[in-house]
């Protein structure tokens, strides 16, 4: 009997020790996402910007040459976290998905996040044990905004000695200390806002790049393409896409335009350099803790470089404090996405293909510095994390109706193997569409006529084969439509037939190079929206929005991003805040909901203060009251209640004081 008991005890101890060893061998997982980074913006992808830390991770790990995102900020974050396409996951509410944090936390991991959230609720509601960052889609790098949170609680941004990119890593290092004290393996997600606009850099970083961009975007793009060929990143016979009609030759620009454009690219380079420096701090910490070899590090961008030239102020100043805010440049976005075409939100390669670096010495069996040429997507990351950590993706979860993930584990690629795609890669944001099936890709610019490219022979999408292969186009369009309807569960309007081509492609927010740069705002285009004649209550329909006023109802029809209402000049007689913005909303549209407001007359929207709020289900009236937490008088106001195509009706729109007294009523 004693022998049997001893044997059982020994076996039990053996199993326990085996489990402990297995847990100790589980990799830590560090996910890094940057915002609006172009394909060639990192040194190991062709850039002249100094990124030694990212280059070292690539040299010791691997790089992807065909890694895809969704071409847009919030939808890429949904896909990264959930392994699903954004609409299928429930969009920003994630009500049909679980996150990588929830999957790994439930498998015994300590989970933490820093940086930009841009989804509903907070990271601490979706599996993260720790969180520091801003819930908004963008913020002032020096001043932040009022959406900063620390572990679920409101966090006040210091009035000085603050820069968001640095703060993200300051808190990330604190969270890593907490993780080590817990004794658990950890999953850390660092979501940098950089280099998303507003373009703002630390003084020392800006000074480092002064004098480097006077040659202009033609020369910079040429040198980046040449470096990409030297690196073997793309085939040697891969010609870059030509300069498009909407980008002028650098030498044709006015001197005033050149000066401002040089400063914008100097700022972008400084912001990207700072991201690399902060990643270096993280890597140093992992080395000192002895964790680098068994930490799976993944670096990605949410979309390609941004072309939207919205509003800039103080063009003659330096963007090295929170008072100067500059927008993006379409010309530099073209250079930054070398060698591809187009930009953020477009489903051409320039919008959806960005750097992806993986470093994991204990788990990657390929030669260090390898380039993976097989297509992959953000939807593959969460399944990969579950695979390498031995975690299970649930099919049921409290409070949510889960849908299957569409991504696949990329672990075989770490071993030098290949994967077989179970379905094509699907692309949809607002009215931009795409499908990648093997070597072939169809793409539609803002729901215009479908174009067809063979990416093996024409990676830079120069030769449209749609007229030569109409049957292939029709078959792929049917596949895209079926996936949109049955896999994404998108509304009918999302897969309405495309319209005719309008060539050359144009967008109202791309830079108007015929205008003086001081005429900044919305691609430097004149605003043609009509305003209400009532002083202090003027309502402006924002871009891609049609507004009809019927009695006490504001009826909106959306046809693209950045839609909604703006109130550019509120009465000077308004008392100081705080305020409440109250209204009833009936909506049939995509996207989240946001309120922007300013507390001075000179700040341009969407800069200033920012609040997000949750929307109810489509097709039903819902009451909303949003608190505007300021003790100053507000000057301008913006209300966004949709994105993409759709409709919304707002009634009983009122601005209230803190006690509920009506201060303003629209219309």
From TrEMBL:
Pfam families: Sulfatase (PF00884)
Gene name as annotated: atsA_59
Organism from which the protein derives: Stieleria magnilauensis
Entry EC number(s): 3.1.6.1
Enzymatic class: hydrolase
Family: Belongs to the sulfatase family.
PANTHER family linked: ARYLSULFATASE FAMILY MEMBER, ENDO-4-O-SULFATASE
This protein's name: Arylsulfatase
Region listing for Disordered, in residue ranges: 495-537
């Amino acid at each position: 009997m004693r022998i049997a008991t001893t044997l059982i005890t020994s076996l039990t101890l053996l199993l326990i020790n085996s489990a402990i060893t297995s847990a100790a061998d589980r990799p830590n997982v560090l996910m890094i996402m940057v915002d609006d980074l172009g394909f060639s913006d990192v040194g190991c992808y062709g850039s002249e910007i100094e990124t030694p830390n990212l280059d070292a991770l690539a040299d010791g790990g691997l790089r992807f040459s065909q890694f895809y995102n969704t071409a847009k900020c919030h939808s890429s974050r949904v896909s990264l976290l959930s392994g699903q396409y954004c609409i299928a996951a429930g969009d920003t509410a994630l009500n049909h998905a679980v996150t990588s944090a929830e999957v790994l936390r439930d498998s015994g991991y300590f989970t933490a996040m820093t940086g930009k959230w841009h989804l509903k609720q907070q990271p601490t509601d979706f599996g993260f044990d720790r969180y520091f960052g801003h819930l908004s889609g963008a913020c002032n790098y020096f001043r932040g905004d009022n959406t900063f949170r620390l572990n679920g609680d409101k966090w006040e941004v210091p009035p000085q000695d603050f820069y968001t990119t640095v703060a993200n890593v300051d808190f990330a290092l604190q969270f890593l200390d907490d993780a080590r004290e817990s004794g658990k393996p950890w999953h850390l997600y660092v979501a940098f806002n950089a280099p998303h606009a507003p373009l703002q850099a630390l003084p020392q970083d800006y000074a480092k790049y002064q004098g480097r961009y006077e040659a202009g975007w033609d020369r910079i793009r040429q040198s980046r393409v040449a470096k990409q060929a030297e690196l073997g990143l793309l085939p040697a016979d891969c010609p870059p896409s030509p300069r498009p009609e909407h980008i002028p030759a650098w030498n044709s620009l006015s001197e005033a335009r050149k000066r401002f454009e040089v400063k914008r690219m100097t700022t972008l380079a400084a912001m990207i350099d700072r991201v690399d420096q902060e990643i270096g701090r993280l890597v140093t910490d992992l080395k000192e803790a002895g964790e680098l070899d068994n930490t799976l590090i993944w670096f990605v961008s949410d979309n390609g470089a941004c072309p939207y030239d919205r509003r800039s102020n103080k063009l003659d100043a330096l963007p090295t404090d929170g008072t100067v805010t500059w927008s993006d440049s379409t010309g530099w976005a073209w250079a930054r996405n070398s060698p591809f075409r187009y930009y953020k939100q477009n489903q051409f390669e320039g919008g959806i293909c960005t750097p992806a670096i993986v470093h994991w010495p204990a788990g990657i069996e390929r030669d260090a510095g390898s380039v993976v040429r097989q297509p992959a997507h953000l939807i593959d990351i969460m399944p990969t994390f579950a695979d390498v950590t031995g975690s299970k993706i649930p099919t049921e979860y409290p409070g949510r109706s889960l849908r299957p993930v569409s991504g696949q584990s990329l672990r075989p690629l770490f071993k030098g193997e290949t994967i077989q795609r179970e379905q094509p890669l699907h692309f949809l944001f607002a009215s931009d569409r795409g499908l990648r099936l093997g070597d072939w890709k169809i793409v539609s610019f803002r729901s215009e006529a479908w174009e067809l490219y063979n990416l093996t022979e024409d990676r830079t999408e120069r030769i449209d084969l749609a007229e030569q292969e109409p049957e292939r186009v029709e078959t792929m369009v049917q596949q895209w439509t079926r996936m949109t309807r049955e896999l994404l569960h998108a509304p009918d309007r999302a897969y309405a037939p495309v319209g005719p081509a309008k060539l050359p492609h144009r967008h109202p927010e791309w830079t108007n190079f015929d205008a003086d740069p001081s005429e900044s705002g919305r691609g430097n285009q004149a605003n043609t929206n009509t305003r209400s004649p009532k002083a202090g209550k003027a309502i402006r329909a924002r871009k891609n929005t049609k507004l009809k006023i019927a009695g006490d109802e504001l009826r909106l029809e959306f046809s693209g991003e950045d839609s909604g209402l703006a109130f550019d000049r509120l009465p000077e007689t308004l008392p100081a805040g705080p305020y409440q913005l109250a209204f009833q909303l009936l909506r049939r549209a995509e996207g989240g909901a946001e309120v922007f407001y300013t507390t001075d007359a000179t700040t341009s929207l969407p800069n200033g203060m920012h609040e997000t709020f949750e929307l109810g289900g489509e097709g039903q009236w819902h009451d909303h009251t949003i608190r505007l937490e300021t003790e100053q008088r507000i000057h301008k106001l913006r209300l966004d209640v949709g994105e993409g195509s759709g409709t919304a009706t707002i009634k009983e729109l009122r601005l209230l004081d803190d006690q509920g007294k009506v201060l303003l009523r629209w219309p």
